[in-house]
Amino acid sequence: MKNLLDKFLKMDRRYIFFLVALGVIIPLIVPIGLPVDITKPVKDVYDAIDSLPEGSYVIISLDYDPATIPELDPMAYAILRHCFRKNLKVITMTLLPAGPGVAEMATKTCAKLENKKYGEDYVFLGYKVGVSAVILGIGEDIRIPFPQDYYGTSIDDLPMMKGYKNYDDTEIVITISGTNVPASWVAYAHQRYHVNVASGVTAVMAADFYPYLQTGQMVGLIGGLKGAAEYEKLVGVPGKAFVGMDAQSIIHSLIIILIIIGNIAYFIVRKSKKEGVG
Amino acid sequence: MKRELPLFICALMGITMIIQYFIPHPYSIKFYQTVIGWFIIIMTFAFVLGIMSIARVHWNKVSRKQKDWFYSLVALISLSVTLFVGFAFGIERGKPFMLIFEYIQVPMESTMFSLLAFYIASAAFRTFRARTFEATLLLIAAVIVMLGRVPIGYMISSKIPAISGWILDIPNLAAKRGIMIGVGLGSISMGLKIILGVERSWLGTIGGE
Questions:
Q1: Where are the transmembrane segments (chain B) (predicted)?
Q2: Do A228 and A68 contact (CB within 8 A), yes or no?
């Protein structure tokens, strides 16, 4: 028994990799359709956007790179589509050097799905180096960090941007990121210029931003694929997050089962080793 | 002089910006806006310097045929090709620059990140042991939060997401806030040390000093 458990504890990790692969692939092919409950931090983001009057300016900073696309793209798409459906004026940008491609893809795809016109309903500003300087610059005048949009058109030549100056004209800033950039938005945009900030982050980063929720420095928080699935449900556009929930449920369960079995085996082996020594 | 001048500029700008923050005069605001513009320009040049530096490191590795020089060659070729197609054909969707991004960079980075799931599962099985009281607490908290973050947790019991929320809202928040206050105080202290010239490591080595 002891030898068997010892072997089990030292099993080739490729068996675990195989189980994980099955746990991801099978639910994606045959969806289970597990129910998604709505949590307060996600509902708060939804309500903050949903309560805005038509034509309000919203900044969506897509501060993520290709590595976190599977987790953050679904929430970016759901938020963008929500804003477009509410006929809000959407300004998108990114503060990550590898972000422009991702941000442009998300913005253009959602705008096309909701039949929105560039320059009138939304603009894409692209990337500008210097996180804090860019956030502070927008607080003074968006033309300081972004005199032109991503395509080289002067901001003043875009019909939507006529009359827009800074955070005073902005109802909310939504930052989607797998990094600590949302903390900079809180520190520089919210604290200095008092604009509302909401955030969407990867699951591993979510715990870092709970203090900002409790203080009211963030109006809401979307955490990981689960948060994205909740937002998709609220907006009524079930997408990749909703499908991914089944796979994530199975993988989380698998990891928990592995931890429990690993601990049981470890303690049995340890006990028998002690008895053997005794 | 090579050290004194940067130290003087740093102290002058640091003190000026602190004072400026408390003076809402139009001249002060104009100065602040100009500084932000300059900040972005300097950061852009720092970015270019960073690219030059990384290119030099890899070039040295290739020219001296050091260990794994081939990977450095791949990095240099990738950098050159991406720069060339970006400048030559533009960076809009459908152009070679974006094709490289969509069909090479996106799948590669996503794959690297996805591999985490496999390694986390394996590492959790091998190392996550309830050896001590603290480790047991961590393990229980991790299991509850993991279950609370997926629909299956809600299906098992509606209390699991609630307990998971409590863990994030109370113990996690208390610990994070403590860390954040510590980091904040540390940042202020470091900022003052740099402005006053006590901390000089940012100068690097100038003229062998």
A1: 5-23, 35-57, 69-91, 111-128, 135-157, 177-196
A2: no
User: Residue B46 belongs to what domain range?
Assistant: 1-89
Query: Are the Cβ atoms of B152 and A137 closer than 8 angstroms?
Result: no
Q: Does the beta carbon of B137 lie under 8 angstroms from any beta carbon of chain A?
A: no
Based on C-alpha coordinates, what's the Rg of chain B?
26
Structure tokens at A211: 């203090």
pLDDT by residue (tens digit) across B90-120? Answer: 888 888 998 998 899 989 988 888 888 888 8
B57 in any annotated domain: yes
pLDDT digits (tens, 9 = 90+) for A20-74: 999 999 988 888 888 888 999 999 999 999 999 999 999 999 999 998 998 999 9
Q: Which residue of chain B comes nearest to A35, CA vs CA?
A: B151
3-state secondary structure of A153: coil
The token pair that represents A148 in the structure block: 């032109």
Q: Residue B103: inside a domain, yes or no?
A: no
Domain borders along chain A are 2-30+246-277, 40-238
Q: Is the distance from CB of A4 to CB of A270 less than 8 angstroms?
A: no
Whether B19 maps to a domain, the answer reads yes
**Cβ atoms of residues A83 and A58 within 8 Å:** yes
Q: Which amino acid is at A161?
A: M
Residues in chain B within 8 Å Cβ distance of A35? 151, 154-155
What residues of chain B, 66 to 125, have a C-beta less than 8 Å from chain A?
Answer: 91-93, 98, 101-102, 105-106, 108-110, 112-114, 117-118, 120-122, 124-125
Architecture of the A40-238 domain: 3-Layer(aba) Sandwich (3.40)
Contacting residues of B for A148, CB less than 8 Å apart: none
Q: Report which of A158, A141, A140 is spatially closest to residue A149, judged by C-alpha positions.
A: A158
User: What was the ipTM of the complex prediction?
Assistant: 0.83
Amino acid at B128: F
Q: What are phi and psi of B207, to 5 degrees?
A: 60, 30
Look at A259 and B152 and tell me if their CB atoms are within 8 Å.
Answer: no
Let me know if residue B144 belongs to a domain: no
